[in-house]
Amino acid sequence: MHDDQNRPDLALFLASAAHDMKNSVGMLSGTLETLLADDAAKQTPAYQQMAHMLYETRRLNDNLIQLLALYKDVGTPSYPFDPQPQQLDYLVEQVQAQNGILLDSKNIVLEVDCPEGLVWIFDEDLVIGVVGHAINNAIRYTLDKIRLVARPGEEFLELRVEDNGRGYPQAMIDAGMSIKSGVDFTTGSTGLGLYFSSEVAKMHRHRGRQGSVFLENGGTFGGGCFVLRLP
């Protein structure tokens, strides 16, 4: 018989392991960024392979961060939810800094359309994580352009990440943010990033309105569009 009282909490053990893996993957990602930032590296035959390795390590790191956030239950004392008035200019700078080397290594241009001086209330770390995930996903599918758009309205701020790829499959758009859509073994997608983004969006509430995320095709480039709406 198993002694359940002496058995360690499996969820806690897995969370600890995920945290340890995140740190290791983060170190690997940082090393690759340093190597790719060297102009001499661009002349080596392995440059594109290193660029792809950086993309994969960033994707893995994002997944581990999302798993840990969901395990700790965002909005609880262990992972506080802290919406504050934020400058959108600063958010854009953070996203550009985090993704600049990867975008450059893959010859992808990031265009920005954000009104100067725009301020909105949201949790900075969580929203930067959501936008960063959307850009990392767009890197996989775009041809050579990604566009980050901030559109303020009377009731919602709309943050859009658009690309000039072939767009999202209709089945993916129809499935929406449901984690129940499961793993797509064709693409290897678990839907974790979209589920995490949806949970973060729904935490943002104001005057009876709630944030949301959805996918569509079109936008300025006619490709895939990830849309985050914050009240």
Q: Can you offer a commentary on this structure?
A:
The strands form three sheets. The protein has a five-stranded mixed beta sheet, covered by helices on one side. It contains six helices and nine strands; from the N terminus they run H-H-E-H-E-E-H-E-E-H-H-E-E-E-E. The chain is an alpha+beta fold and 231 residues long. The chain has one domain (4-230): Heat Shock Protein 90. The chain has helices at 10-37, 47-72, 88-105, 124-141, 170-175, 192-203, and strands at 84-87, 109-113, 119-122, 145-152, 157-163, 205-206, 209-210, 212-218, 223-230.
Name some characteristics of this structure.
five-stranded mixed β-sheet, 231 residues, two-stranded antiparallel ribbon, Heat Shock Protein 90, alpha+beta, 6 helices
Order of helices and strands: HHEHEEHEEHHEEEE
How many angstroms separate the termini?
Answer: 53 Å
Estimated share of beta-strand residues: 15-25%
Task: Give me the number of helical elements.
Answer: 6
Low-confidence stretches: 179-188
Could you tell me the CATH topology label: Heat Shock Protein 90
Helix content: 40-55%
The dominant shape is globular
- Please list the strands of the largest sheet in the order they lie side by side: 2-4-5-9-8
- Provide the structure class: alpha+beta
Number of domains: 1
